[in-house]
Every structure is written in C-alpha cells, then in structure tokens.
Amino acid sequence: MWFALGTGVVTTIIVAAVVLVPVAGLVASAAAAAPFVDFPVTSMTVAVLGGYALAAGFLALILRIRRGALAWICAVAAVIAALVVSVYPLAAGAGAAAAEAGEAIPTIVDWVGRLQQLLP
Predict the structure, then answer these.
(1) In Å, how far from its chain's centre is CA 54?
(2) Looking at residues 81-98, what average pLDDT do you find?
(3) Of 6, 5, 14, 4, which is closest to residue 86 (Cα–Cα)?
(4) Under a CB-based contact definition with an 8 Å cutoff, are residues 52 and 11 in contact?
(5) Residue 51 and residue 88 in contact, taking contact as beta carbons nearer than 8 Å
(6) Which long-range contacts (CB under 8 A, 24 or more apart) does 45-54 make?
(7) Which of 13, 44, 51, 105 is positioned for an S-S bond with 89, CB 3.0–4.6 A?
(8) d(CA 3, CA 13)
(9) For residue 120, is pLDDT > 90?
(10) pLDDT of 10 higher than 90
(11) CA quadruple 42, 43, 49, 54: dihedral, nearest 10
C-alpha cells in the first residue's frame, strides 16, 4: 500500500513537471502570439485544477484502503487523471484556434473575391 502511494505521488509530480509545465508554456505563448484567438483559459484552468484534485483524491483514497491491488489501481488512476488533464489545454487551445480559423476562412475568400472583381 505504501509503495503504491509513494509511486503514485512521485509519478503524479513527474507528470505535472514534465507534461503540464511545458504544455502550459506552449499554450501561454500561443495565446500571446495570436491575441485574436479566444483561448478558453478559464475552462482550461478549471479542468486542470479539477483533474489534479481528482488525482489527489485517488491518492488520498489509498490511505483509507488496506488492499494492495486496489491501492495500485488508485495510484494508476491518479496518474492517468493527471496525464489526461495535463494534455487537455492543448486540445482546448487547438479547438479554439480551429474555430477561429473556420470563421476567418470565409472572410479571406470574400477578400479574394473582391480583389478579383477589381482586377481586369
């Protein structure tokens, strides 16, 4: 049980350091580089905080149970929850950028049409 708890805590911290920090930096730099894209910062933050709270809940649950196999299942669930919500900001940012691009394409096509009308 204690090994499962230790492994889960260490692996969750590693996921936060190796996956979440670079993803947050990438999303922040993309948001700064493309200010016209409305990034869902609030939903990203809530999802990440909620996911890590879920992971902490799984890890805390290990302290309540006394079965080794169930402790390992909770540790793995905590790491998977941390990993999924660490990657979520990439998906949310990509979705926001794709939605913005979907709105921009008709405008660009309209500009090209107007330019073609001006040319002989």
Answers:
(1) 15
(2) 88
(3) 14
(4) no
(5) yes
(6) 47/85, 47/88, 47/89, 47/92, 48/20, 48/85, 48/86, 48/88, 48/89, 50/85, 51/81, 51/82, 51/84, 51/85, 51/86, 51/88, 52/12, 52/16, 52/81, 52/82, 52/85, 54/78, 54/81, 54/85
(7) 44
(8) 15
(9) no
(10) yes
(11) 160
Residue 107, token pair as written in the block: 């405008």
- Euclidean distance between CA atoms 92 and 44, whole angstroms: 7
Residue of 17, 21, 15, 18 whose CA lies nearest to 80? 15
